[in-house]
Each structure stands twice: as C-alpha cells, then as structure tokens.
Amino acid sequence: MTQFIDLMAQHPWLFAAISFVFAATIGSFLNVVIHRLPVMMKREWQQECNQYLKEYHQALIAPIADKLDAPIDAFPAKYNLIVPGSACPKCNTTIKPWHNLPIVGWLMLRGRCASCSMPISPRYPVIEAITGVAIAYLALHFGPSWQFALATLLTFALLTLTFIDLDEMLLPDQITLPLLWLGLLINLNGTFATSTDAIIGAAAGYLSLWSVFWGFKLLTGKEGMGYGDFKLLAVFGAWLGWQLLPLIILLSSVVGAVVGIAMIVNKKINSGNPIPFGPYIAIAGWIAMLWGEQIVNAYLATL
After folding, report:
1. SS (H, E, C) 95-159
2. Hey, is 194 helix, strand or coil?
3. Top-confidence range, 68-72, 89-93, 115-119
C-alpha cells in the first residue's frame, strides 16, 4: 500500500485519472441513491402514518400520496438501494451490467433503452461526469492522503444532497447527520480544523441559519428555509471550523440570488415559488474546503 501511495504521489495525473474512473463508477450508484432514497423515506412516512393513525388513514394519507412521484404500491414490497436491480421504468427490462458502465453505458445506448427505445435522461451521465471531475480535482489538490479520502466522501454526499434537494426540496437526515458527527470525529486530530473550531463551527452553523429562519418567520409569518439547511451548514462548520462559515454563507447567498433571479427572468419559476437553498450551501462549502483560506486572505489583504 505504501508503494502504491508513493507511486501516486510521484504521478499526480495518473492518480487523478484513476480517481476519475473510480468516482464516475460511484457516481452511477449516487444516481440510484438520488432516485431511491426519497421514495424510501416517503414509504417509511406512510407506514408510520398507517401504524399510528389507522382510523384517519384516508383523510391524512391521501393528500400525501397525491404528491408522490409515483404511487407507493407501484414499487415492490422490498425496495432499497440495492433491491430491486436497475430496470427500464417503461418495459421493466433489467439493465445489463455493461449498460450500467458510467458515461460509456449511456453513450453505447445512445440515450435510449435497449429494449423499448425509451429515452434515458442525460442527467445520469452528467452526474457521473461531475462526480469524476470533482474527485479528479481533489486528487490533484490533496494528493494521496487522508484529506483526499475524506474530502472525496464529503463530495459524494454533497452531490447526493444537491440533486435530492433540487428534486424534492429535501435534505435527508440519513446523510446530513452522519456527516455532522463524522466531521467532529475526523477533526479530533485536526484533519481540517482543530476540534474546538469544529465544535464551535457545528453549533454556529446550525444556530446562524436557525436564527435567520425564526427571525424571518416572526416578521413575515412564512418559513424561509428548511431545517435541513441548518444541518448542512452545521456539517461544514464541523468539517472546516467556524472561521469559514461567513464565507460559505456569503457565497451561497450570492450564488442563490444570481441563480434565482436568472430563473425568474427566464420564467423557469415564479417569484413566489420556493427555491432549494441546499445546493448553494453545498457548492459554497466545497469551494471553501479547497480555497477558503486563500479567498479570506485575499479579501483581508484589500482592507
């Protein structure tokens, strides 16, 4: 293992290429998580409602079921991230292993099911490509190190959260909470920040957006963001320390405002429609992980 690490350190572009292939393969699995995890959560919510509110089933569950992407009964009884295997949603033909190859598989199929020619969304290879490029860059930035391995894990989680939030306006606790505790644990030895900075960062990250949420709600009577956003910012506080939180909040607000205004101008959304904030926090946090100190130092140098 030591010889392999030394070889990768001596040949950073080879390390980046290997990282790209590995990450693109994981990106294929992230597509599964992005699609299935919200369905699994909705099924769990319905089962809980069925268990505790049986006498009010029709009155309380029907409105929720109407908002689901597909009826709960449309999915098999055993439905998780592994089972059932990937299949065409139209003809139910099982996808062959070589068609599941990241990026290449979609190109081989020319973006269509091999059996019924149903179009396959280009989002699948796009996510695989984004994952591969992001991890390849981390390989060049950190080299073969524990920081690279941990940053890779965080990036996988952020990509998953980003696309789930874009689809469902949801940041699952199943991802954010383990990331929060992992961030605190890895910084016990100062991997990205001191343990003190990480603990303060986790608390400050959560409470800062929590305060904004309640201030906005008291003033307007409306909820301006979700609790998942608080937890995601707490994740970055735990991973990177409290010092980078102002930069993350500023970057996410600027990116969110620009994208939101552009979508309104292009009539993609109405001005009153909610916009997921999690993707902007994720992007800002990833930028801060790589260049946060340089950005802050460059800004302070101008004062």
Report:
1. CCHHHHCCCHHHHHHCCECCCCCCECCCHHHHHHHHHHHHHHHHHHHHCCCHHHHHHHHHHHHHH
2. coil
3. 115-119
